[in-house]
Request: fold
Amino acid sequence: MTASRRTTMRFALRTAAAEKLEQGRLYLPTSERPTLDTPCLLVASGPDDDSEAIALERGFPQEGLDTPTIEDTARCASLFGNPPTDELLLESFVYYWRFDAWLPFPGAPDRPPSEETRKRLDREFFEALGEERRGEPCRSEGCARGAIHQSVFCRVHHYEMNKKEPCPFLD
Reply:
């Protein structure tokens, strides 16, 4: 039978910071941002265990992080304060749990949605293509735009050739 232990986020994070947290996976009662006093359930890991079912049965439906990752979030927090405060341990845990990324600095804003980031990167790529040369026409059939430097295509058609999708920018 798989062992499970009810605890609080504060205790689990402090124990992980000391690298003494039992190997397993932490489960939370909801998907809402936990506090230091939020109850949680650590389900010990085993080769054939169904820790998710055990956590559900005990009233902890929200999957948290596994022990090695929790310890890593504590190490991340210690980069900003050694020893890190309980609040910093929690902030580092929550940031990783929500965004699958390390806390860049205490008080960091939420990461933008991936679609927003993709659009920003696509725009940066488009802008980096540079100006079109009016004296050198784009070789895409029917296009009246000028080719960009080191290409036979305008920015729109060069973008489409590289990204393999329609260009959302027409400027």
User: Anything to note?
Assistant: The mean pLDDT is 93. The helical segments are 9-17, 51-57, 67-78, 86-99, 114-128, 155-163. The CA atoms of residues 118 and 136 lie 30 Å apart. The beta strands are 4-8, 24-28, 39-44, 62-66, 132-137, 146-148.
